[in-house]
Sugar kinase
Amino acid sequence: MSILVVGSLAFDDIETPFGRSDNTLGGSSTYIALSSSYFSDEIKLVGVVGNDFEDNHFRLLHNNGIDTKGLQVIDNGKTFRWSCRYHYDMNTRDTLDTQLNVFADFNPHIPLQYREAKYVCLGNIDPELQMKVLDQVSNPELVILDTMNFWIEGKPEELKKTLERVDIFILNDSEARLLSGDPNLVKSARIIRNMGPKTLIIKKGEHGALLFTDNGIFAAPAYPLESIYDPTGAGDTFAGGFLGHLARAGEINDTELRKAVLYGSAMASFCVEKFGTEKLANLELLEIEDRYQSFLDLSKIEE
């Protein structure tokens, strides 16, 4: 099924205790689109870039089957840039520089041929822009939304209005506590689900993820890795793998949602093994299925 992905594209300068990578292709929609492209061959990407977005960047997306007709290219502008430095535990980071550039005036226009997309994934952008996207699409079967503490604190009412039109909401544990006003994640989930989205995923980084539905709670572990080079984009990669599996499965029920959480976790575990999108751009389907099986084996008990 077709997937519409709307969010940011960026160039990142990333420094971790284990190295650095400059001018790395990033942005929420980039990670989501690349991750979901392993499950669906109908990925439609909407975003904005400047004249520094070169042929090799388009080629990377096209080589992964991503349709970029919805990508706005501003000839007299520069692509969104962001730089950061991660601390030794990789759970905290310092933002060193943010240059919105052409992204500051981003006004998403959904091409006519994209508006019938069955699945819509709204990356971490202004909730008012997320609402504009939803106003342009034609009755999607599933809407997934991501956000961050910046929007929770800065535009809480706009975010809550957008959540009324969302089926699945993905956020991390600190964002869940901030939005709900409650430190307990189970209570937080109930409060947030009452805002609109009936399916909620709370990511807990190295401690896995929690899935909340009407039928209960599912806890997925994180994959134990010996080497983590760069956690940038792991959450967006999770969203892409999660949505990609649902699109491939062609149905949404508790079993497929739980499988989707594991596929999302598998994709995120690949992402952190290299800087930026390097690992995501060069995966094999067999690798993904093997990693998914490894997640199943983590909690398996032989009788």
